[in-house]
Design brief:
Layout lengths: L2 H5 L6 E4 L2 H14 L3 E5 L6 H9 L3 E4 L2 H5 L12 E3 L6 H5 L6 E6 L5 H7 L4 E5 L13 H13 L4 E7 L6 H17 L6 E5 L2 H7 L3 H14 L3 E5 L1 H5 L3 E14 L4 E7 L8 H5 L7 E3 L9 E6 L8 E8 L7 E5 L16 H9 L2 E2 L5
Parallel strand pairs: 1-16, 2-3, 2-9, 3-4, 4-5, 5-6, 6-7, 7-8, 8-9, 11-13
Antiparallel strand pairs: 1-10, 10-11, 10-15, 12-15, 13-14
Helix pairs in contact: 8-10
Length: 368
């Protein structure tokens, strides 16, 4: 379906999802990552069609915040789906919500923490969260006690034989990968079985995209480790980003001119406080493409694109080069799908905008 056909008779922003992208990305993942497995964070997308495609490929899924899982759980094919709860939440009310959740893997920060989970999830297997740094957000068992904790768990008959690490960005990747290798070697020397190692955060995805020698060496080390023990890393952005195309409606326009330049300002009905919140805070490349029935002159102008609010933060960029468009034309965005339907600022001021977007979701299922 063409862009013009998609926007015809519409007046509000919407997005299109393409499920065939998931299998395309699966092939690309294998080519880049080899034997390293991807796992998917439920915060990455609110679209069950995409999650079910990922499930068909056998990928594990996880959450740190159960609300993102709960909103899609009724629509998921849970037959054979592996769901991991990595929140390490021990609150009594939270634990009471787990028995019917379908969770089969749980992250803990100590052997003692497994007791409360085993009371509600008798068949669960556990991951030991290991702190790779002293940063306040990197909580978990200290690395000096990690291997011993697996020994203690085995002695007590607890299904705890895997490690979980946090790698928020590529700059932490070398420390995390070295720790993974060190713990594996320590466990091997002590004849302690390590079933698997898991890494959440976008650090490994960022690392895989780096081309400098140090980054390539670190990534190669992780690939070698994956040939000895199962290694799974977050692959959410890799699979989800290109599965969405976002269309925004131009609702306002302003021309700013001086003796030296001319700039066009477009105001659209979807911005930082809705689909582009994650793209904004993570400084993702944003590339608007015009969608219009009008014949364009081919001349390009310095362009700024705003969302619908009067907030100066609601600015998608000042460096675009676009032709002159009119109110009621559209802008199309590709590659910004990661968290676009979930990770939005949900203040009262923008609730109606967000609901309008979700109500107008266009599910274009191009399945092979």
């Amino acid at each position: 379906m063409s862009d013009l056909a998609l926007v015809a008779n519409r007046t509000k922003s919407f997005f299109v999802i393409r499920t065939e992208v998931i299998r395309q990305q699966s092939a690309a993942w294998k080519a880049s990552y080899g034997s390293i497995h991807p796992m998917i964070d439920f915060v990455a997308t609110s679209q069950p069609e995409l999650l079910n495609e990922l499930k068909k490929l056998g990928y594990k899924m996880y959450f740190n915040e159960k609300v993102y899982y709960d909103q899609v759980a009724p629509y998921l094919d849970k037959d054979g789906l592996v769901i991991a709860d990595l929140s390490s939440n021990l609150a009594e009310e939270y634990l009471a919500s787990l028995p019917k959740s379908g969770v089969s893997i749980v992250a803990v920060e100590s052997v003692e923490d497994t007791t409360m989970y085993r009371d509600v999830l008798s068949d669960a297997t556990f991951l030991l969260r290991v702190a790779a740094s002293d940063n306040v957000f990197d909580c978990g068992c200290c690395k000096e006690e990690a291997v011993r904790s697996l020994e203690v768990a085995k002695e007590q008959g607890i299904s705890l034989s895997s490690f979980l690490f946090l790698c928020p960005s590529a700059k932490e990747a070398d420390v995390v990968v070295n720790l993974m290798e060190s713990l594996y070697e320590e466990a091997k020397a002590k004849e302690v079985f390590v079933d698997a190692m898991y890494v959440i955060g976008e650090g490994i995805q960022e690392l895989a995209a780096q081309t400098d020698a140090a980054s390539r060496a670190t990534f190669a080390k992780l690939q070698r480790l994956a040939s000895h023990v199962s290694v799974s890393v977050d692959g959410s952005r890799f699979f989800i980003a290109n599965a969405y195309t976002i269309y925004t409606h131009i609702i306002g326009k302003k021309l700013k001119t001086n003796k030296e330049s001319r700039r066009i300002l477009y105001y659209t009905d979807n911005g930082v406080y809705c689909s582009f919140f994650n793209a904004h805070i993570h400084k993702e490349p944003i590339c608007p493409q015009p969608v219009t029935q009008r014949k364009l002159s081919g001349e390009l102008f310095d362009t700024t694109v705003f969302g619908p609010t009067c907030d100066s933060i609601d600015n998608l960029g000042d460096d675009f080069k676009l032709p002159e468009l009119q109110i009621d034309d559209w802008l199309k965005y590709e590659g910004n799908g990661y968290r676009c339907s979930n990770y939005s600022a949900r203040s009262e001021e923008h609730t109606s905008e967000l609901q309008s977007l979700e109500d107008l979701v266009c599910r274009l299922l191009l399945e092979k």
